[in-house]
């Protein structure tokens, strides 16, 4: 069963978990998911037609809301377990225990650990794309370099600090194969966007130089982020300042409008937004 089939099967099973007494009707309300999942869940029948359409629709909405809350509960528990144990050592029993539900309840929504990881990574990727889209906006290009770094780096750092499971799933040595495919796509998309931004501020720079600069910038961010994630509180904030300072000193000489090499004295040491309580 691939990820899409697992997701559809889970949708068909939501009705049973949320309203066991109305299993026949519940399955009838998710016919498309049931068919796609190969008949997973209860079998819809004549009972579905015995309920007024308005009431049936209202029940489906309530079931879907309860099912989505349970899924969110399980995914939050999985993120915690993955961060604590790593993906390989994590188990569905540990995830169910963290969520405060039985393993049987978990299996009503997810057939295995990999399906949980794929669903979690899909949701994290959606949030990642939103945060990176905002951070790497061309609207920041008119800002002075120190403020530009704040505008670009702060949301990216905040996303990773708020979602530590993202790094576990995307960059861990034991990442599931389907998720691992996303890593190259992520790197390529970020590199392309950074290179586009550099082209806007350095239009006369040769393409090969811009490409190397983009690679170096992304590499500095990834390396600095590892140190940032490893620390907490004031020490984490200090490493954020260090990363911004290093990137400032690397990029400033390339941007004459920022003051050239001598502008390194104007490092953004006091502009960091605190990311931890």
How would you summarize what this structure contains?
The chain contains 13 helices and no strands.
Question: If you had to describe this structure to a student in words, what would you say it looks like?
Answer:
The chain has 277 residues and is mostly helical. 71% of the residues lie in helices and 0% in strands. The chain contains 13 helices and no strands. The chain has helices at 3-18, 23-28, 31-36, 46-49, 53-85, 92-99, 103-109, 113-135, 145-162, 164-171, 177-201, 207-230, 233-251. Helix 12 packs antiparallel against helix 13 (233-251). The longest helix is centred in the N-terminal third of the chain and has 33 residues, at 53-85. The chain is elongated and about 65 Å long. The two termini are 42 Å apart.
List the helices and strands and how they pair.
Layout: H1 3-18, H2 23-28, H3 31-36, H4 46-49, H5 53-85, H6 92-99, H7 103-109, H8 113-135, H9 145-162, H10 164-171, H11 177-201, H12 207-230, H13 233-251
Number of helices: 13
Beta-strand share of residues = under 5%
Structural class: mainly alpha
Q: What's the quaternary structure here?
A: single chain
Please provide the count of β strands: 0
Cα-to-Cα separation, first versus last residue: 42 Å
- Largest β sheet strand count, sense and barrel closure: none
Please provide the ordered H/E string of secondary-structure elements: HHHHHHHHHHHHH
Tell me the overall shape: elongated
Radius of gyration: 24 Å
Low-confidence stretches: 17-49, 259-267, 269-274
On the 0 to 100 scale, the average pLDDT is: 78
Helical fraction equals: over 70%
């Amino acid at each position: 069963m691939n990820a899409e089939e697992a997701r559809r099967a889970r949708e068909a099973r939501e009705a049973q978990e949320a309203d066991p007494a109305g299993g026949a009707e519940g399955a009838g309300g998710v016919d498309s998911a049931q068919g796609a999942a190969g008949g997973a869940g209860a079998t819809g029948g004549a009972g579905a037609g015995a309920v007024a359409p308005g009431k049936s629709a209202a029940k489906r909405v309530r079931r879907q809301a309860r099912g989505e809350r349970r899924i969110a509960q399980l995914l939050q528990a999985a993120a915690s377990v993955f961060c604590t144990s790593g993906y390989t050592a994590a188990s569905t029993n540990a995830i169910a225990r963290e969520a405060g539900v039985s393993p049987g309840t978990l299996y009503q929504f997810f057939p295995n650990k990999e399906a949980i990881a794929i669903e979690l990574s899909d949701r994290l990727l959606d949030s990642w794309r939103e945060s990176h889209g905002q951070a790497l906006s061309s609207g920041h290009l008119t800002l002075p370099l120190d403020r530009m770094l704040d505008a670009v780096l702060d949301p990216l750092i905040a996303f990773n600090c708020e979602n530590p499971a993202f790094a576990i799933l995307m960059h861990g040595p034991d990442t599931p194969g389907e998720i691992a495919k996303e890593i190259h796509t992520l790197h390529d998309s970020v590199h392309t966007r950074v290179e586009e931004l550099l082209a806007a501020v350095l239009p006369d720079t040769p393409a090969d130089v811009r490409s190397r600069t983009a690679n170096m910038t992304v590499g500095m961010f990834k390396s600095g982020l590892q140190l940032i994630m490893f620390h907490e509180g004031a020490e984490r904030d200090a490493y954020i300042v260090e990363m911004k300072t290093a990137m400032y000193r690397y990029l400033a000489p390339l941007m004459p409008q920022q003051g050239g090499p001598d502008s390194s004295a104007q490092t953004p040491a006091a502009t960091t937004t605190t990311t931890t309580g």
